[in-house]
Amino acid sequence: MKFESVTIKDIAKVLHLSTSTVSRALRDSYEISEETKKLVVDYAKSVNYRPNPSALNLKKRRSRTLGITISEIANSFFSQIIAGVESVAKEKGYNVIISQTFENFEREQEAVRNLSQSVDGMLISLSSETKSLEHIEELQQRGMPIVFFDRIAKNLEGHKVRSNNHKGAFDATEHLIHNGYKRIAFIGNPDNLAIIKERKRGYDEALEFHQIPHREDYVKYCQHGGLSYEEVEMVMQDLLSLDEPPQAILSCADKITTNCYRYLYKHHIKIPDQMALIGFSNLDLTEFLNPSLSIIQQKAVTMGTQATELLIQQIESKRPVVDYSEIVLEPDFFARDSSKGH
Length: 342
Known about the structure:
This is Transcriptional regulator, LacI family. There is one protein chain. With 342 residues, the protein is of the alpha/beta class. The protein folds into three domains: 44 residues, no CATH class; 135 residues, Response regulator (Rossmann fold); 141 residues, Rossmann fold (3-Layer(aba) Sandwich), CATH 3.40.50. 42% of the residues lie in helices and 15% in strands. It contains twelve helices and twelve strands. It has a six-stranded parallel sheet with strand order 2-1-3-4-5-11. Strands 7-6-8-9-10-12 form a six-stranded mixed sheet, sandwiched between helices. α1 crosses α2, α5 packs parallel to α12 and α8 runs parallel beside α9. The longest helix is centred in the N-terminal third of the chain and has 17 residues.
């Protein structure tokens, strides 16, 4: 038998009242006498009446649901962001729908389009393939609240929460230089992403500051963000086949860092004796690897909480939001065995 909850119509029928009277009584309206209110509320409690949240939200044209698009839940950085998002959403009475793009532009377009039909606002981190932002601009023009995080859209208005990517890459490159490494490779996601441009700028400026010549053949990009081991494997083979291969690698994405470490281990290339490695990573176990991995760690949970707070503020604002915030979080740097000096 299908479960059927008690409705306002059921209460009205039993008490011989109109549905509007019952509805007003349950909302404690001044238009209804205290006697009638007590009658309705007492009966509603006795039959375990619960308001239908879907109906209430439909009336308010609100779903109390947030959408989030990320590249991959399995990525530790994004899973930590989701933890931050859901902690704030739950506290504020919102649900969260998560959509993965797997670094694919078409999947991002589809995810954004589908989410827009059922959420009050969106948290968006762009895919590696995303170059056109028309699908997001269209939603903004229709009034959809959107907050960008991590992989932000620099040319679009809106709240943004990101890491200080320039500083993270500069500090890591400088650390390698101080430890005696001069031939340092850079591996990142495609440079259409603002975060990769900033990390590349940090890398370049550290080399320039220490008067180390820049070599274009040491700069490599993984078009799918290192999602597959094979993609990183090809980049590593290119670097190691150079007449003068690098002595150290700065990896600029979580998956790339993991797969670089895997490649070196698999090919019996000693870290850091034959190749030093440092990378952006939010994996919990990097300090327990052998050798332990030096990382630039982003404040992922904080990024998730702050982006969600900004989004809910925008959703619940009684006036159109025209002043936007850009929050920049400082990353943490952990120097470990994988980047030790010669």
